[in-house]
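Sequence, please.
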């Protein structure tokens, strides 16, 4: 029993290293802009309920977007939650469709009490994904073909993204009121390539532009929850959390080169321009305001509604906010458990979840802000005589572009599986 904390922290260090280099290679043209696609984060219980969780309290789950919820962790207990997911992107530009899929690490959480009124949680989550690969070949049969230019291939590629490592604590102020704070370290690197290659390689210089953006910073989340009983078995919880606007250190490097197949200096490659800048305050992530309310019956069902507002129009990404738009997001979810403590049927012990979400993307193109909406579902198989469980969720999200403006639609399918372990620390078992 005494070796368990050491083993768990060793696993965490290994997985933090994986998360720093892991990236989901699903092809989305909107990842070309800003910091890439900002994905939903959180436990799979939360994602199965539409991404809600601001007003949720549960002794076997971690809701990182409201650290006040950490006070619901049982005394002497330990939570460990690790998840993987697979995403499939279907891209429709009005004339053709494209499809890509990939599986990767999603999250790792730990939680345990520091005292009777104090809980702690830590973990790692993805923040953004900057992967895309777009290629276009113009040949003599293409209507866009220009004899003065000849046949040409365009390649646009992006890699990398941002990840977050958080640690936080929640304190029970009164019987009904809890407060909490998270410290989150966000870091990562995004690499982008724009390359133009002419078919007449013997008499032409090709061109490429490579862009590297590194971001690093520390921010804090603040949360409150007020929970009260209604009658003998029902309850209601009000939740609010806030993340302040924060200036992040960022480095940006842009190299423009021309090159040929003949790798002979000084003709190839030849640097046309070079830009490098490092600043403490040129990247600004905006504030985040979250409100939630949940209502339920203990050990039976719960439903929640959340509202989130993020003024991305006030943000900067290394001095630029050209493609940024403020977003409002609405989320709703419900969970139902037929018989949480059944010893005869695992189907009755299962947790069933449904949810939906609607809002904006922070990407603005040609004066149009991309819309996002979707539905979710999930379930959890609770192991017998324990709070440990295996959780699955499914999310279908529609990213609505504007085909008349050259902005494609995306259908995003996500499926995740997590293992959530619940155990007690420092309690010796007695045998007679």
């Amino acid at each position: 029993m005494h070796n368990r904390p050491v083993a768990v922290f060793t696993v965490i260090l290994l997985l933090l290293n994986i998360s720093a280099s892991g990236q989901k290679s699903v092809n989305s043209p909107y990842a070309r802009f800003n910091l890439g696609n900002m994905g939903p984060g959180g436990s799979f219980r939360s994602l199965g309920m539409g991404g809600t969780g601001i007003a949720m309290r549960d002794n076997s789950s971690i809701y990182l977007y409201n650290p006040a919820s950490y006070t619901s962790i049982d005394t002497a207990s330990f939570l460990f939650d690790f998840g993987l997911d697979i995403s499939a992107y279907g891209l429709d530009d009005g004339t053709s469709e494209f499809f890509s899929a990939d599986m990767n690490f999603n999250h790792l959480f730990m939680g345990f009490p520091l005292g009777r009124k104090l809980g702690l949680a830590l973990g790692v989550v993805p923040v953004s994904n900057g992967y895309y690969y777009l290629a276009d070949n113009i040949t003599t049969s293409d209507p866009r073909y220009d004899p003065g230019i000849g046949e040409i291939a365009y390649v646009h590629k992006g890699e990398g993204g941002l990840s977050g490592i958080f640690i936080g604590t929640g304190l029970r102020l009164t019987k009904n009121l809890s407060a909490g704070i998270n410290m989150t370290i966000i870091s990562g690197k995004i690499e982008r390539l724009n390359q133009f290659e002419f078919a007449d390689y013997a008499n032409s210089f090709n061109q490429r532009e490579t862009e590297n953006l590194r971001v690093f910073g520390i921010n804090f989340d603040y949360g409150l929850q007020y929970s009260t009983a209604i009658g003998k078995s029902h309850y209601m919880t009000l939740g609010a959390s806030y993340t302040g606007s924060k200036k992040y250190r960022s480095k940006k490097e842009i190299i423009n080169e021309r090159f040929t197949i003949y790798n002979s200096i000084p003709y190839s490659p030849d640097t046309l321009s070079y830009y490098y800048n490092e600043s403490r305050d040129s990247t600004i992530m905006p504030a985040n305001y979250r409100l939630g309310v949940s209502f339920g019956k203990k050990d039976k069902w719960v439903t929640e509604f959340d509202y989130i507002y993020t003024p991305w129009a006030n943000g900067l990404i290394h001095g630029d906010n050209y493609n940024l738009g403020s977003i409002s997001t609405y989320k709703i979810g419900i969970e139902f458990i037929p018989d949480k403590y059944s010893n005869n049927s695992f189907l009755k012990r299962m947790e069933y979840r449904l949810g939906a979400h609607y809002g904006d993307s922070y990407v603005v193109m040609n004066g149009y802000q991309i819309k996002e909406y979707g539905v979710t579902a999930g379930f959890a198989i609770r192991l017998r005589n324990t709070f440990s469980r295996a959780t699955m969720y499914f999310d279908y999200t529609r990213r609505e572009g504007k085909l008349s403006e050259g902005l494609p639609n995306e259908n995003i399918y996500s499926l995740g599986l997590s293992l959530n372990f619940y155990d007690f620390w420092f309690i010796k078992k007695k045998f007679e």
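The chain has a mean pLDDT of 88.
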